[in-house]
Fold these 2 entries.
Entry 1:
Amino acid sequence: MSLLGRQVAVAGIGYSDLSRGDAPDPRMLTLQSCHAAIADAGIAATDIDGIFEYLHADRESPRTMWLQRVLGIPNLNAYADLFATGPSGLGPPMAAVAAVGSGVCEMAIAYRTLPQREGNNGGIAAPPTSLAGPEQFTGVYGHTAGILANYALKKRRRMHEFGTPAQDYGQIALSARRWAALNERAVQRAPLTMEDYLSSRTIIDPLLLLDCDYPVNGSCAVIVTTAERAADLPGTPVLVDAMAWGTGAGADFVFADDLLYGGSIDCSRRIWELSDYTVADLDLAGIYDGFTHLPISWIEALGVCGFGEFGDWVDDGRSIGPGGVLPLNTSGGMLAEGRVQGIGLLAEAVEQLRGDCGARQVPDAHVAVVAGGGSNDCGALVVHSG
Amino acid sequence: MTGPITQPVPKPAPEPDEVSLPYWTAAREGRLVVQRCTSCGKAQFPPDLLCRYCQQPDPPFVGIDGRGTIYTFAIYTRSFSPAFEVPYALALVTLDACPEVRMMTNIVEADLAELAIGDAVEVTFEKRGDWALPQFRPAQGAGA
């Protein structure tokens, strides 16, 4: 606990219903997750003096001011609506940790609300007649559904550079389903075979459908406060040991110096400098699996195994599955529990470290890393049970 | 949902700004240029207000050899935009004369099934509205 002015805890977590096919009001989803997190922490809404959220479109998530108003919170000492920058759903809790740790606020709520329709990148749109700004160097080449193309470009480069077979990517997808089968909240619980993975539809070659996470209507919220304050609450707090953002050199989604790892290497170096723990202490990991490439590159960046060695290390999926050396995304992650862009992995780490995970509980779990982003948008936290 | 596309939809043209205007002007004249810093000697892309390696302002645009190497590529087999007919290859190409420069491009005039990372490519130019885009195609024979 060397980085923060005050010791910080995650004191509560909450989910909305996770669903597909319907179209619930994002405000309702947000209220569900925030009410659940407030109840889980055992606080009153009016104890909250900081609100943080992330959005990447226009209307998918209600803003912090709306939440303040409807919860009857008289004033906020800190808030931010993080727009399409940083480690997406992990951004709000990280901002909350920084705000509480520095003393700017005392009790923050952080949420990510993402309706299924905003989680789809496959819409067909007529292009404008001209493209300005960064798109004059990308969009003019048909860099459409850009995030999908980026992960197709990364996947092919990694396969070339390290001789990675497509099956290595499949291990991430298969493992997500193995864990999701143990998680009643997960939306996609059907088991998956390697044949299913390899024969799934091509999105942008070589990116397959089952490389991509599973869009749902969902919201997830966490309560962040000081460890001192959390100690007086009824629940079991989980403490933040270390936290780091990372962008990498030449930060850019397309033109960054390091296409494969983005800022994850710098972020990992920093978090291990700050942490009281080492990679050997990890009992589980929650790594944003918006695309299967991400956990693979993070596992290497964090030093769990060497660069290019994920395929050997993962041991046909055993290393990351139930009973493995590093259980990964034990909720099923974004690939199978459902896409709330990473904040769910923090909530899951908290549940694991509290010992509340039932059938999917990792025995004696005390230390977890949670990480997200794979380009110039990286962020990570080490959390522990104290 | 929209119905079948009956009118051809034009591909978007670049919209140059104050910084990028020399790049697009050169491309329209069939020349590939990049910014190369007179202080540290490094090239950069996309163009910017200063050299990102040493912060020297206004790095000048210089003509650069149009030979490159495919760094990675992706093939669109379903359309996300009516302007771009599938299949097409979107690639990142490094310039042989300054490997620190990685450009986004299509690989044109190519058998997409035969493309591979490491392939030698060369620049060509595609008219786009009032402007022209640098594009890359497989290098034409040995020593091209």
Note: Chain A touches chain B at residues 122-134, 136-145, 149, 152-154, 156-157, 160, 202-207, 250, 254-255, 259 (CB under 8 Å).
Entry 2:
Amino acid sequence: MRQMKTNLKQSVLFAVLLGAVLVTAGTATAHHGFADYDMTRQLTVKGKVRTFQWTNPHTWLWIDVSTDKGTVIYAFEGMSPNYLGRRGWSRHSLQPGDPITVTYFPFKDAAKKGGTLAKAVKPNGEVLNNFVPAGAK
Amino acid sequence: MAKQLWKQFGRFAIVALASALFVSVTPAQDWQDYKRPAPTAADWAALAQLPDFTGVWESPLGGEGESLVVKPGEKVKAPTITRSSKFPVFHGPPPLPLTPAWAAKVADLKAHAGEDTSAANCLPPGMPEIMGQPYPYEFLMTPGQVTIVGEAYMIVRHIYTDGRPLPKDPDPTFFGSSVGHWEGKTLVVDSVGFSPATTIDMITPHSDKMRIVERFKLLDPDTMQITTTVIDPIALTHPYTTTRILKRHRDWTIDEYICEQNNRNSTTSTGKAEVNTTPPPLNGPASDVK
């Protein structure tokens, strides 16, 4: 129950935060806006971690997704290590081969698979959020 | 013949003298020959009498600083849901009071605006935008100087509080040239000399007359208020003042932020936003290269 409450609180905070990001895209996000991403839609996909780059100005996650037509690679852009490192993430958070469920805002370009990360959920239920207020995890 | 030579020499002498005067006068108006005395033990001790700004600060709500910019005395309005977005949307800062000529210029810029700014290519925003980043700032206080280290883009602002005047003819820079003085417990910072590459907000250019006055003060031990006034008699009908809040995090340190390390975003010369999603080779370096 406590977990559910926490999740709800996080969702609300996230929505508020994202609202702020949308209005002020470019400045508040530092670095860049969301022209390449459809921030009005969220999708979810399951796969296995291929590579996780703990780098500035953004972290990047690639996962291998099994489909009828073979493995498809999805790419996800995350906030910087500086930002995520203060919010419960570390460079060890995602290891190659880890099963992972990713919720994301998709690329507008349909040829590109993936998008901006919303959250990554591990099989044990651990949630790694991409946009989190300072101090919260 | 000799008379003509003398005449030529006379002209040369006048030009040479004028140049020499020009060279010797110009730097004196700026900071090149401002020699700060070595700090004494008393100068270091005097720092303890000032409000303590030292440490790492960030805008609340994960640093969404711009969304919290309001007029002094005005409360942040509750976010609203709009049809175009599933998410609550914050009211932005109050509009800039543009002069008619500047409003026309901004309308034209907006009509031809690119999808993203040059920040996507790792070029930092200038003043005042650089103070609204969703990343922390570290304040350092030393005799005659307050230094602000911005984590995003690893930027530094040097604010000289040693009594020197503003430079009269500074080279235009992203963050300008800044001097500060204390009015009671408030640090008042005056800055001039901004690069034309920088903007007042995300799109509005400033004129070469822009001057920025910032007032830094503590509202409580770990809350700082920064009131920023942009004065630009060519771009703005009257000074534009906004306020932002920073919270101190005693358990934080500033991290490295090398934007060029793995920047996969970019804007083309025509303003088109692009993103490179190519995965790195599996057997390549794990995390440090594109």
Note: Chain A has a mean pLDDT of 80.
